Amino acid sequence: MKQKREIKNFTREELVEWFEQNGEKSFRAGQIFKWLYLRQANTFDEMTDIGKELRETLKENFSISRLELERSERSKDGTEKLLFRLHDNAYIEAVLIPEKDHYTLCISSQVGCAQACKFCLTAKGGFERNLTTAEIVDQVRDAQALVMARDSAKPMSNIVFMGMGEPLANYDAVVKALSIITDSDYGLKFSSRRVTISTSGLVPEILALGNETEANLAVSLNATTDETRSMLMPVNRRYPMEELLKACKSFEMKPRKKITFEYILIQGVNDSDEDAKRLIKLLRPIRSKVNIIPFNEHDKSDFKRPPRERIQRFLQILLDRNVTAMVRKSKGDDISAACGQLRAKNR
Ligand code: SAH
Q: Which domain holds residue 40?
């Protein structure tokens, strides 16, 4: 039997190419996309506007995979953690976060992570493998189905690649997933203004992303000196701050867009007044905003979250110098769904 290929690994352009090579009309690709992503079909037999013969050919060549939703947990604040099982019994998590008038979905790009950031719980489990495009897209598709089945008044409109893994270390699969997620005619129809890729700072891929996509960029900066950053994030030894910030400065984006700099505040490590002042200076030349994330404590780390007054003071120093900044409210911490707490325990 022929080795079947997973159809959700194909961008629309790639499907067009496949149909052309197989003597079929290219508009079929759009039709298939509509079935897969708008109508959420799980079998080729549902695709009733496609002739029986062609459906058979598709069945011979392609599979339509699913993620298994193993469990979902809802926190007191409404944040929901979705635990998915993959075909090889690996587990990943996505988090559905209710905002005032929409949902934001936080998705994973890898099983585990190789970045070894010292503060992050996902890092402690090491790296297992990259996700495929289909597995990335399916997190969005399945969460979308959940939301639509519930209350259509609040759409799921925003996606952040801030779950498990380093998205830019899985660059090709992530960029292909982006093209499906933001396909405005037939795909999942998310506006690229509402899709954000968060990275620990892989410089070549940051530059490539700016050239190839319109997704928003978030950079986990987390420190204001190379010494501290290298201690927290080993990636800084490969791409030190000067190089990273230079790449951010030249990152291509539309006029009113900004790069988000995430900054975890850890007591006694990176939360001083001097840090705040250095941060202002470092970011001055870059169109940016700062997202302060008070460290989420977990039992694999001795780091502590600074007291409330320290967090407030750090924020105020930035605001006083006209830096756009906010403290990210921690959501879902009672179900280990907060930043840096994701780690599928169900191995
Ligand atoms: N690898 C990507 C995306 C995953 S991490 C990246 O590094 O950006 C998503 C965010 O969670 C990052 O900004 C990271 O710094 C933050 N984070 C990780 N562990 C955390 C913790 N224990 N408390 C608060 N934020 C954490």
A: 5-63
Are both 42 and 114 inside the same structural domain? no
Distance 32 CA to ligand 1 centre (A): 36
Split into its structural domains, the chain has a count of 2
Query: What does each of the 347 residues of the chain score in pLDDT, given as a tens digit?
Result: 678 999 999 999 999 999 999 999 999 999 999 999 999 999 999 999 999 999 999 999 999 999 999 999 999 888 999 999 999 999 999 999 999 999 999 999 999 999 999 999 999 989 999 999 999 999 999 999 999 888 668 999 999 999 999 999 999 999 999 999 999 888 889 999 999 999 999 999 999 999 999 999 999 999 999 999 999 999 999 999 999 999 999 999 998 899 999 999 999 999 999 999 999 999 999 999 999 999 999 989 999 999 999 999 999 999 999 999 999 887 777 777 776 677 666 54
List all residues whose CB is within 6 A of at least one atom of ligand 1: 115, 119-120, 162, 166, 198-200, 220, 222, 262, 264, 293, 295-296, 298, 339-340
Q: Give the CATH number of the domain where residue 124 resides.
A: 3.20.20.70
Which one from 80, 93, 166, 205 is the annotated catalytic residue? 93
* 3-state class percentages of the chain: helix first, strand second, coil last, to nearest 5: 40, 20, 40
Q: What is the DSSP string of 59-106?
A: HHHEE----EEEEEEE-TTS-EEEEEE-TTS-EEEEEEEE-SSSEEEE
